[in-house]
Design a protein that fits this description.
The chain is built from 14 helices and seven strands.
Length: 414
C-alpha cells in the first residue's frame, strides 16, 4: 500500500514539474515523452490533486487556468478517455455526456457554416451561411445551463470530499467560454453586406468560442467526470439528479432509465408538494388540482422570470407551439430565432420598466388563427416578477355564429 501511495505521490509531483516547465516556456515537444508516460498511469483524480497542490504552494488560480490550456494542448492526443463507468441512461454523468455530444454537434454546425461563408465569393451576400452561423451560435448559448449544473451541483459535492481544484479552475474556464460566446453573439448581430467582410470579421470570435467550448468538453470527459465517478457516492449522485431540473437541460433532455437510491427518493417524496394545498387569496388548490387546471386550460402558458429565464410552461395535449423541458432555465432570448430576438428584448424591457404591460400578436399558422399575448406579471407593489405568454387557437371561436342555449357536446360519444 505504501508503495502505491508513493507512486501516486511521485506521479503528482512529476505532473507538477512538467506543467511548471510548460509555464516557464518549455516547448510542448520537450516534455511530451515524459508526460505520455505519466498520463498513461495517472488517474483523473491525480491531475486534480496536482492542481490543488500547485495552488497550495502559491500558484494563483489565473496561472493555473493559463497552464490548463497548455497542458491540454500537450495531452490532447495522449490522454485517452478513462473508463466511462457503468452508468445507466439518465444518470447525471450520462446526461452531461449526452449534452456534450449535442454541444459538439452545434460546434460542427458553426464550423461548417463558417467554412461555407469563407468559401463564398467575397463580393456576394453572406446569405444562408451567415444565418446558419447565427442559429448555431444562438443554440450554443444553451451551454450555460450545462455549466450551471456542473458549477452549482457537481462542484459543491466534490468540495465535500476536499476536491476544490475544479471549482476554482474549471469555473474560471467556463466563464471564459461564456465570454467567447458573448463576443461571438455581438459580432453576429452586426450587419454584413459582403461575404468576405463577414468571414474576416467573424473568424476570430468563432474560432475562440469553438476552441474554448471544445476544450471544456475534453476536460470534462477525460478528467472531471471520471474523477467524479470515482469519488461521489450513489446517494450524492441521486441528490444531484434530484436538484438538476432547477437549472434545466442543455439542448437535449435527459434519457430515461436512472433511478436514484431509495433514500433520495424518500427525501424527494417528502419535499414534493403532492397532497398539499396551495393557498390563494380566493381559495386553495391541492398540487394535483393545480397541475390538472394548468393542463386543462384552453390556452398554452409559458412563464419567464424577472431574469428572463423560462421557469414554467403548461403541458396540455394540444399545445400550439411544442415545448421541451430542455428550455427550463434557459434565457428566453435564446429560445427564439436570432431575427426575432430584438422584438423579444424590447417587450421585456418595456415590461420591466413599466412602460407597457401587454403585447399581443395574431398569426395564421397552418390554417389556424393563433392569438399570442404577453402580460407583465407584477406583485402587489408593482415590482416586475416576469412575463406570461398566453397562446390560444381562436379558429373555432371566430367561426361561432348565432347562439347555443341548449346543452350540446361537441366531443363525439361524450
Amino acid at each position: 500500500m505504501s508503495e502505491l501511495i508513493d507512486n501516486r505521490a511521485r506521479r503528482i509531483q512529476t505532473l507538477k514539474e512538467i506543467v511548471q516547465k510548460l509555464h516557464h516556456g518549455a516547448k510542448p515537444e520537450e516534455v511530451r515523452a515524459q508526460l505520455t508516460d505519466i498520463v498513461r498511469h495517472a488517474s483523473p483524480g491525480e491531475i486534480a490533486a496536482m492542481e490543488q497542490q500547485l495552488m497550495a504552494e502559491g500558484v494563483t488560480v489565473s496561472e493555473i487556468k493559463s497552464m490548463c490550456d497548455l497542458h491540454a494542448e500537450v495531452v490532447q492526443d495522449i490522454l485517452t478517455k478513462q473508463a466511462e463507468g457503468d452508468v445507466p441512461p439518465g444518470h447525471p454523468v450520462d446526461t452531461f455526456r449526452v449534452e456534450n455530444a449535442a454541444i459538439r454537434s452545434m460546434l460542427d454546425d458553426l464550423s461548417k457554416a463558417m467554412a461555407d461563408l469563407a468559401a463564398l465569393p467575397p463580393d456576394t451576400e453572406p446569405g444562408l451561411p451567415l444565418r446558419r452561423a447565427r442559429q448555431a451560435a444562438n443554440d450554443l448559448m444553451d451551454v450555460d445551463k450545462h455549466y450551471q449544473r456542473k458549477e452549482n451541483l457537481l462542484f459543491s459535492v466534490l468540495e465535500r470530499h476536499g476536491i476544490t481544484g475544479p471549482s476554482k479552475v474549471m469555473w474560471g474556464k467556463d466563464d471564459e467560454a461564456r465570454g467567447t460566446l458573448k463576443t461571438l453573439q455581438a459580432a453576429l448581430r452586426q450587419s454584413y453586406a459582403k461575404a468576405g467582410h463577414a468571414a474576416a470579421a467573424l473568424k476570430p470570435a468563432a474560432t475562440a468560442a469553438m476552441e474554448a467550448i471544445g476544450s471544456m468538453i475534453d476536460k470534462e470527459e477525460t478528467i472531471l467526470l471520471p474523477m467524479s465517478l470515482q469519488t461521489l457516492t450513489e446517494e450524492e449522485w441521486g441528490q444531484i439528479w434530484q436538484q438538476s431540473p432547477e437549472y434545466g437541460w442543455c439542448l437535449v433532455e435527459p434519457r430515461t432509465g436512472y433511478a436514484p437510491p431509495e433514500s433520495v427518493q424518500a427525501q424527494e417524496a417528502v419535499e414534493l408538494p403532492h397532497g398539499r394545498s396551495v393557498a390563494f387569496p380566493a381559495g386553495s388548490l391541492t398540487f394535483e388540482q393545480l397541475v390538472g387546471v394548468f393542463s386543462t386550460l384552453p390556452v398554452d402558458l409559458t412563464f419567464v422570470d424577472a431574469e428572463d429565464r423560462v421557469r414554467f410552461f403548461s403541458e396540455s395535449s394540444g399545445r400550439i407551439f411544442a415545448r421541451s423541458k430542455a428550455i427550463i432555465g434557459r434565457k428566453v432570448q435564446h429560445c427564439h430565432p436570432p431575427d426575432s430576438v430584438g422584438v423579444v428584448e424590447r417587450i421585456l424591457d418595456d415590461f420591466r420598466t413599466g412602460r407597457q404591460s401587454v403585447a399581443e400578436f395574431w398569426i395564421n399558422l397552418h390554417g389556424r388563427f393563433v392569438h399570442i399575448r404577453y402580460f407583465a406579471v407584477r406583485d402587489p407593489k408593482g415590482e416586475y416578477l416576469g412575463t406570461l405568454e398566453v397562446t390560444q387557437d381562436l379558429t373555432p371561436l371566430r367561426a361561432l355564429e348565432g347562439e347555443r342555449r341548449l346543452l350540446q357536446y361537441d366531443t363525439p360519444g361524450a
